[in-house]
């Protein structure tokens, strides 16, 4: 039987997992990444994904423990309940570790997870940024989007898969007799357009290529000794568009105004919190 001991607010995803019995680790991780791709996390400082991997390849997971922070008491509970996977919202490994010793509690946690074969996965800001994620849940304290308020991310993230996974657009003008297949054979280089043209040297073809940084280097190497071709090469960095639905934080505009105390009570009700601090 598949068991979950602690839920965070991503209820829809968790309910999907609890209906199944015994799932391979990679299948579970794929579902989490489908819900909130890791590219949504703030790559400049955050540390997300699998942080502790088991020695067994793709084990069957029957019990998961969800927690906001992976402390020693939480880990002891996971071991007691025989959980094979811990989803820790905040990453237990944040700064680079120079050693793993028993003198530091954070290092002890990692050592104990390895000893007991427990996988640790942290989603952190990817769950903040995703549409219908943690931020969206928090602002639901004020009602229904579009009906009671309008919202937008404070800082939008770039879409990962558009216009392509490649990072550059390269154009090159080749003599008509040149073999374009040499370019097509390069890994991560996709010819997206071929236009016949005429240069001072005669009939030619202008080729547009979507390619990775490594592929750019390979194309340059192809024509290293052909200056008449090298000087025609132009490279444009592809900028991916912003995703208006996903990003860090949420700025909302209420349809009806509320006092600060009313707003606090709304949040307390949502989070089932019985106390608050109000600074005026």
TrEMBL record:
Keyword Metal-binding attached: yes
Protein name: NIF3-like protein 1
Gene3D superfamilies: NIF3 (NGG1p interacting factor 3)-like
Pfam family, one: DUF34_NIF3
GO cellular component: mitochondrion
Signal peptide: none
Residues reported in the UniProt entry to bind a divalent metal cation: 90, 128
Keyword Metal-binding: yes
Keywords for this protein: Metal-binding
Top-level taxon: Eukaryota
UniProt cross-references to PANTHER family, sorted A to Z: NGG1 INTERACTING FACTOR 3 (PTHR13799), NIF3-LIKE PROTEIN 1 (PTHR13799:SF13)
Family to which the UniProt record says this protein belongs: Belongs to the GTP cyclohydrolase I type 2/NIF3 family.
One of the record's GO molecular function terms: metal ion binding
